[in-house]
Write a structure and sequence with these properties.
single chain, mainly alpha, 2 domains, three-stranded mixed beta sheet, 78% helix, rod-shaped, binds zinc ion
């Protein structure tokens, strides 16, 4: 194989490896971001559950006050009846009205108590979710510096090697290579099972033989440099 093809092969492999490390770094940062967002969402959920529980308790307090008013009103009416003062029919109507109101308020209070149980369970569940989200975020944050450093170190080792191999390439090859890269495309393809692995075009036996004996002969369809399989 031509020595320029050897160098192109190496530069291409390094570029792909570096792109892989870059993707892993981006994935790492994305996961950290997602874990942070999950914690924020879980905190909001807990706050909502707490607000809903507070609202329930406030409603219970309002009902308790009403109940106590109704019971007081009923007691005054009963006292009027017992002492024979005032209008007994009006007092009797007041007792009945109070009984109805007390019944209604007690029913509503029971419903609120049931709802309170549900809301407390929901709040506990949301607090557990928050704990899990925080633990997940913490684990990621703890591991991130080491992972990030390892990926960056690999990438910079590769970049150093790439710089030295790339520097040995002729100018016209470098400029074509850069042109492919500027279009976000790989400049180098490999012959795998007799076809170009970038465009799937069959590589003729003669073309393959030319590559092996040291010619630089790009793919006839996609025009990428072709690397023959290693013997
Ligand atoms: Zn091709």
């Amino acid at each position: 194989m031509h020595e320029d093809l050897e160098r192109l092969d190496r530069v291409d492999r390094l570029d792909r490896e570096m792109a892989d490390r870059q993707r892993k770094l981006e994935t790492l940062e994305r996961k950290l971001g997602e874990a942070g967002a999950a914690v924020t969402a879980a905190e909001q959920e807990v706050a909502q559950r707490e607000a809903s529980l507070t609202e329930n308790r406030d409603e219970q307090r309002v009902l308790q006050r009403k109940l106590s008013d109704y019971r007081n009103n009923r007691s005054s009416a009963v006292r009027l009846l017992e002492t024979g003062q005032g209008d007994p029919e009006a007092a009797e109507r007041q007792v009945q009205r109070c009984d109805a109101l007390i019944d209604e308020a007690e029913t509503a209070l029971l419903e609120l108590l049931e709802a309170q149980d549900e809301r407390e369970a929901a709040k506990e569940a949301s607090e557990q979710s928050l704990q899990q989200a925080r633990a997940h975020q913490q684990a990621l944050a703890d591991a991130a510096p080491t992972e990030r450093a390892a990926l960056e170190e690999e990438r910079s080792t590769m970049a150093a090697e790439r710089t030295s191999v790339y520097a040995q390439l002729p100018r016209e090859i470098v400029s074509r290579y850069d042109h492919w890269q500027s279009r976000q495309k790989w400049a180098v393809a490999r012959v795998v099972d007799g076809t170009c692995d970038a465009c799937q075009m069959d590589v003729a036996a003669q073309h393959l033989a030319d590559l092996k004996r040291g010619l630089v002969a790009p793919c006839r369809r996609c025009h990428r440099w072709l690397i023959p399989p290693r013997a």
